[in-house]
Amino acid sequence: MPDTPSPTIHPAWLPSSAFRALGSRRVRIDAAGPLADTVRAEVSRACSLFGGALVTPEAPADLILTTAPATAPAAPATAPAASATAPAATLAASSAALPGSAAALPGSAAALPGSAAALPGSAAVPAVPAFASGSGEGYRLGRRGAATVVTADGPAGLLYGMFEVVRRGEAAFDPALPGERHEPAFGLRVLDHWDNVDVHPVMGQVERGYAGGSLFWRDGRLRDDLTRVGEYARLLAASGVNAVTVNNVNVHAGETHLLTDRLGEVAAIASTLRPYAIRVHLAVNFAAPVILGDLPTADPLDERVRRWWSDTTDRVFATIPDFGGYLVKADSEGQPGPFTYGRTHADGAGMLAAALAPHGAPVRWRAFVYNHHQDWRDRSTDRARAAHDHFAPLDGRFADNVILQVKHGPMDFQTREPVSPVLFAMPRTRLALELQVTQEYTGQQRHLCYLPPMWSGILGFRATGDNAPTLAAMLSGAPGSPAAAGSPAAPGSPAAPGLPAAAGSPVVQQQPAAAGPSAAASGAGLGGAASGRTSGGGVLSAVSNVGDDPFWTGHPLAQANLYAVGRLAWRPDRDPTEILDEWITLTFSDAPDRLRRTLHTLMDDSWQTYEQYTAPLGVGFMVRPGHHYGPDVDGYEYTPWGTYHFADRDGVGVDRTVATGTGFTAQYPAPWSDRYESRDTCPDELLLFFHHVPYTHVLRSGVTVIQHIYDTRFAGARRVAEMRSQWREMADLVDPAVHARVTERLAEQLRSAEEWRDQVNTYFYRKSGIPDAKGRPIH
Ligand code: GCU
Question: A Gene Ontology CC term for this entry (predicted)?
Answer without folding.
Answer: extracellular region
